[in-house]
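Q: Please design a sequence for this.
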């Protein structure tokens, strides 16, 4: 007999207002970073609900903390537990902060997924969240993500030239152009970009 095991999902028991308060108390944050936390969490409250999980706040705190800003951060959690929120919140906060400081519209994060269906789902989610952030703020702070799952960045890189992904992104999204803050791709597409 097959027995279905109930998934254990983290309790979402921290209100958005308490999350904003807690994250705003991180030592060393600028006024614009604190404002960015409020913008992102208030804008996303209709998408993620009016409560988030403790681990999502702690992951965001770790990513935004000055002490850990140059250290790698791993988020490990079960299926459908809220990992996307946990890793996207600090990225969105930083993108909004850069926009408020006049440094927006440049690629700041590369999202790499194992399957095209997953990358498309996550792309749609971040696209929706970017729109909600812009609507909440009342003007365009974020240009949203770009989807490169089929190797279709705005400017193609010559396949005859071996190039690393940073150079490929710089060619696809030159400085001076207002562009997407996030690029979504698959392992296969990334591998193809890095090979001859």
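A: Design:
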């Amino acid at each position: 007999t097959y027995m279905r095991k109930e998934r254990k999902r983290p309790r979402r028991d921290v209100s958005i207002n308490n999350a904003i308060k807690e994250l705003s108390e991180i030592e060393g944050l600028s006024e614009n970073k604190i404002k960015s936390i409020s913008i992102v969490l208030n804008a996303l409250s209709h998408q993620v609900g009016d409560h988030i999980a403790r681990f999502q706040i702690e992951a965001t705190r770790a990513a935004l903390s000055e002490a850990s800003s140059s250290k790698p951060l791993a988020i490990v959690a079960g299926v459908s537990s809220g990992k996307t929120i946990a890793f996207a919140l600090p990225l969105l906060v930083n993108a909004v902060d850069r926009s408020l400081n006049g440094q927006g519209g440049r690629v700041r994060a590369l999202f790499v997924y194992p399957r095209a269906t997953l990358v498309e789902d996550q792309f749609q989610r971040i696209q929706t969240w970017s729109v909600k952030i812009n609507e909440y703020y009342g003007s365009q702070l974020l240009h949203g993500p770009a989807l490169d799952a089929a190797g279709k960045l705005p400017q193609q890189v010559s396949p005859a030239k071996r190039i690393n992904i940073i150079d490929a992104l710089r060619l696809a999204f030159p400085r001076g152009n207002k562009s997407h803050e996030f690029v979504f791709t698959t392992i296969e597409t990334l591998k193809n970009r890095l090979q001859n």
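Q: Thanks. Anything notable?
A: Strands lie at 14-15, 51-52, 109-113, 145-147, 182-186. Confidence is low (pLDDT under 50) at residues 153-161.
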